[in-house]
Amino acid sequence: MLRGLMQERPLLVSSLIEHAARCHPQAEIVSRTSEGPLHRCTYADICRRSRQVANALTALGVVPGERIATLAWNGYRHMELYYGVSGMGAVLHTINPRLFPEQIEYIVRHAEDQFLFFDLGFIPLVEKLAQAVPGVRGFVVMTDRAHLPVCDIPGLLCYEDLLGAASDAYDWPQFDEHTASSLCYTSGTTGNPKGVLYSHRSSVLHAWAACAVDGLAIGVAETLLLVVPMFHVNAWGMPYAGAMSGARLVMPGPALDGKSVYELLRDEQVTLALGVPTVWRMLLQHVDGAGLKPRDELCLRRVVIGGSSAPRAMTEAFANTFGAFVVHAWGMTEMSPVGTVCNLLPKHEDYTFEQRLDIQEKQGRAVYGVEMKIVDDQGERLPQDGQAAGHLLVRGPWITSGYYRDEGGGIVDADGFFDTGDVATIDLDGYLQITDRSKDVIKSGGEWISSIALENAAVAHPAVAEAAVIGAAHDKWQERPLLVVVRKPGEALTRETMLEFLQGRVANWWIPDDVAFVDELPHTATGKLHKLRLREMFKDYRLPSA
Ligand code: AMP
């Protein structure tokens, strides 16, 4: 082999923010703060202050490799920690505040976090947590002295005081790009959460893929609303992609209700918003209820939806009411997270609106860097014909090779593929369609029924706010689908009308055997339907047909 002669500059997270400070110094970061008002700063400010973070951590005795935790919403201070902590060689451990307190306690201990930075709103949580995690050397509240609360947290430090005492002169260390940069735990609906440990290299490569035109097409002309939280999979890598591209970033802080999100979209002239279906459902309901005219008031061009399947009805609503194109995307914590993105191909330009919606229901095509295969129960590859549904396995440079501290043991097969736990089809053009989690497929008479397809068909009914489908035991068929529906306020939808609506929208033998109505559905800490809890709720339920 002949070694190439190109420069070996490591791909480090710090290089992103230095690039942004050099090339997009005035591009803006707008944050809704825990203190109340909107805060505006630039990439140059974030770079300067992240150097202060690095100096402040050094002064606190933090050394490379140590884990520094955050319990924080999306905002500029959180972004400074993204760069300051990882840039100095320590590991940023973002904690999902929606996990149960016992789970948070578990992961702080498991990660052996040394310091914990937190937003004002999490004081009650941290007051309890502090007693249970003696290994944490200090707690830093992310505010200034004027807003410093009176609270029961030993050795409480103030973020702005720490930065105020730190120089903004700092030379980012250069080290192996495979060094860990951040840590995020999965939501752990069964068993303890498991840690996914990202590296500098994986984070930079992933950001590049996200910026690419056939990725999420992030560029300097975009204003991004990061509804997707920075405590879950690094907000889909957007704080890195933003610095790489110079895109203007808008951070909603703790206010994720429909009204607050709408106001930010309007007032900050957002062009691209990213989030999970749960948040978009709240936004659409707000727009509906308040009789707003987003087409006239907003310049939103695209909405990236991932984390759960984007129902056709939602994609249609964004197109009709907002004039915005839904970019459906799929990924997972273990994948940094982007795996596939649903952009259209040139041949789809001639398609009708309905035909395009058919494509947009799919989760899209793999971005370069992600290899996918679908296999049967025996691990044999299945054809990529858009019909055969199988276990989805992936490999690539931003996909995990194992969980932190080896929880769960070996998780890749002999060829290095990681089993996503999802069941999917892949069509001839390479479009992936997720049909289920493997634990959630409904096995009816030896055939699989897709709960996701049924749920998306049900939410197309105008009286349905949310729907979930689980398998219920059946003597003859083993399992049959039970549809659980939350009605929109004031709607009097009946079982019969619901089932009738599904006729012709899904295969006849998929039509659920029964419909149950509930006031709300259980969700996980990342906003997904909590099927395990739903199955527990209906464990004594008997289908009328069973
Ligand atoms: P998380 O690691 O919490 O981000 O969850 C990852 C899981 O969310 C995936 O394995 C899928 O089951 C699910 N998921 C993510 N995006 C989508 C999508 N667009 N459609 C359906 N399921 C999705």
Automatic annotation (TrEMBL):
Sequence similarity: Belongs to the ATP-dependent AMP-binding enzyme family.
Claim: Electron transport is one of the keywords in the record: no
Organism classification: Bacteria, Pseudomonadati, Pseudomonadota, Betaproteobacteria, Candidatus Accumulibacter
Known EC number: 6.2.1.3
PANTHER family (UniProt xref): ACYL-ACTIVATING ENZYME, BUTANOATE--COA LIGASE AAE1-RELATED
Entry keyword annotation includes NAD: no
CDD domains according to UniProt: ttLC_FACS_AlkK_like
GO MF annotations, alphabetized: long-chain fatty acid-CoA ligase activity
InterPro entries (alphabetical): AMP-bd_C, AMP-bd_C_sf, AMP-binding_CS, AMP-dep_synth/lig_dom, ANL_N_sf
The AMP-dependent synthetase/ligase domain, residue ranges: 18-404
Location of the AMP-binding enzyme C-terminal domain: 454-528
Name of the protein described by the UniProt record: Long-chain-fatty-acid--CoA ligase
Pfam families, alphabetized: AMP-binding (PF00501), AMP-binding_C (PF13193)
UniProtKB keywords: Fatty acid metabolism, Ligase, Lipid metabolism
Highest rank taxon of the organism: Bacteria
